[in-house]
Amino acid sequence: MKTIEVCLTPDLIHQHALKGKLVVVVDIFRATSCIVTGLANGVEAIKPVAEIDECKALGTEGYVMAGERGGVKVEGFDMGNSPFEYQSEELKGKKVAISTTNGSQAIIKSKEADEIIVGAFLNLDAVTQHILQAKKDVVIHCAGWKGTPNLEDTLFAGALIDECAEEMKPVGDSALVAHHLYIANHENVLGLALQSSHAERLKGFGIEEDLEFCMEDSTYQVVPKLVDGELIA
Ligand code: MLT
């Protein structure tokens, strides 16, 4: 039976052997929800970069510059980090360079893996099918918040483990924590996620609709996959 582990924050990723494994990167509020939404709505590719200056350099090469720091759009960028911005008709067929506080960093820190995909509640079914068919050991890499675990990514990890429970073995207590969190709250995932610290932060910016959208279950069938440094559908 293939295994499924959870890394609760990128600061613990060194504890997980990634070689030969499939990594699912998750940042529910909001980076991976944005990436799924963008690729499902016709964005050609999304390039995650760590630094704001790298994003600006890609802007001069024709990439749309997207990202935030602390939840707020970076000054001078074309877009912030709202999934609704990624539904824009104007982005169809374009390439986006994205730099965010946690999500894009977690993707970059997963580079040792055999395969890197992006997960969110918005593509939960599609990610489940993908990892069951891949027949590889899986690490769910939660982006968390500035090196600490967060509620919404851990909840998603538990939901994904639950979907795969008959065919994959959870390994390590982080996987058990995530799974039990989900089992105890599966009838109220939105209500629980809205209590998270990042939800509170984003509510402070008046963008509650982003939060509810990010918690929608399997709206999209796309599975973003990192190929040559860019996420494609
Ligand atoms: C991140 O990558 O830290 C988040 O996506 C922050 C945000 O909500 O914009």
What is the general shape?
Answer: globular
Instruction: Provide mean pLDDT, rounded.
Output: 97
Small ligands present:
D-malate
- The CATH topology is given as putative 2-phosphosulfolactate phosphatase
Radius of gyration: 16 Å
Number of helical stretches of at least 4 residues: 9
Helicity, as a percent range = 25-40%
* Total count of domains: 1
Give a count of the beta strands, DSSP E runs of length 2 or more.
Answer: 11
The computed structural class is: alpha/beta
The ordered string of helix (H) and strand (E) elements is EEHEHEEEHEHEHEHHHHEE
Low-confidence stretches: none
- Tell me the distance between the termini: 28 Å
- Give the amount of beta strand, in percent: 15-25%
Strand order of the largest sheet: 7-2-8-1-9
Task: Report the CATH superfamily.
Answer: ComB-like
Biggest sheet details: 5 strands, parallel
Question: What is the CATH class name?
Answer: Alpha Beta
Query: What CATH architecture would you give?
Result: Alpha-Beta Complex
Layout of helices and strands, plus pairs?
Blueprint: E1 2-7, E2 22-26, H1 31-40, E3 45-48, H2 52-59, E4 64-69, E5 72-73, E6 95-99, H3 103-108, E7 115-119, H4 124-134, E8 138-142, H5 151-164, E9 168-170, H6 173-185, H7 189-193, H8 197-204, H9 208-214, E10 225-227, E11 230-232
Parallel strand pairs: 1-8, 1-9, 2-7, 2-8, 3-6, 4-6
Antiparallel strand pairs: 4-5, 10-11
Helix pairs in contact: 4-5, 5-6
D-malate (MLT) is lined by residues 27, 29-31, 68, 71, 81, 100-103, 143, 202.
